[in-house]
Amino acid sequence: MSRTFRFFVTLLALSVPFGVHAQTKTPRPALVVLNKDASELVIVDPGTLKIVGRVATGPIPHEVAVSADGKIAVTTNYGAHQDGTTLSVIDLDAQKEIHRVDLTNLGPEGDLIGPHGIEFFGGKFWFTAEGSKKIARYDPAFNYVNVTHLIGQNRTHMLVFAPDGRTIYTSNVNSDTVTAADFAPSLEANAKTFTLPVGKGPEGIDISPDGREVWVANSGDGTVSIIDTGTKKVKQTINVGTKHSNRVKFTPDGKLALISDLGSGDLVVMDVAARKEAKRLHLGSSTEGILIVPDGSKAFVAVSGDNKVAVVDLKTLAVVTTFETGKDPDGMAWRD
């Protein structure tokens, strides 16, 4: 080896810090997955199913939402025992946490304990705080929580917006209820709330694309409660035969509803109009989070007990493949 070549190699090595690897650019679209036990967010290229980035979050993140422009993701750091008190705000292009939002000592808003379900709407992130029996709003433009609303039910777990943004529905696991909070157009005035009994242990919740029905997956009795959003009453209860329903998600066309069964490891596909099971797929151990891509062609389903994510073709209702993201995957979101 010549002296000149050795000098060039040495100079090149010194120019790259030890342990630093070239960053793979975050794609568009991208799948975002939370690995709960690893306390991390991973970014997946949905075309190749390869992980392009990992970002550490606060303790035990359960759910995640992405802003409409795809720039940031916010995770709810639930904690090991419903005792989490932070949100992680992640720059998806830079692949790093840019804010750790402290949910304690919020002045008149009080402490927010056990953040869990989260949705992005109207430029803000709305989330539940199970231990505080509240929902709250985080404004990323100013990096603070500026609205809270008391639900007053036990374990307010997940939330979903009506298409017009005027009503937020929450599943309240330990109260066996769903709450509908009707807000003024600004989503800042005090809400008028309606709380109605559903099945035992409601966890998963979603609203049909036309906004007419809310489906609630009850973890404790294997049923789905169907709420008429016009009357805000349960109009039907159907037995879907699950051992521990975890999530329910409508396809964009409203024809199918997917229910993950944490207890059996199954994914139950329901024909919405017929109110009947269309297919039941056994995916493995502990199926949890569900993400349906915007065009409705496929679903990603977290199989948390097997540390993998299953890809389900929604035309054939068959599992296409699986891939690993890390330890205990659950909540997912999509970046366009």
Q: What this model shows, in words?
A:
The structure is a single chain. This protein is mostly beta strands and 336 residues long. Helices cover 4% and strands 52% of the residues. It has 1 helix and 28 strands. The strands form 7 sheets. It has a 4-stranded antiparallel β-sheet, with no helix packed on it. Strands 4-5-6-7 form a 4-stranded antiparallel β-sheet, with no helix packed on it. A hairpin with a 4-residue loop joins strand 22 and strand 23. The N terminus is likely disordered.
What is this structure's SSE topology?
Blueprint: H1 3-15, E1 30-35, E2 40-45, E3 50-56, E4 61-66, E5 72-77, E6 86-91, E7 96-102, E8 115-121, E9 124-129, E10 134-139, E11 144-150, E12 156-161, E13 167-172, E14 177-182, E15 192-197, E16 202-207, E17 213-218, E18 223-228, E19 233-239, E20 245-250, E21 256-261, E22 266-271, E23 276-282, E24 287-292, E25 298-303, E26 308-313, E27 318-323, E28 329-335
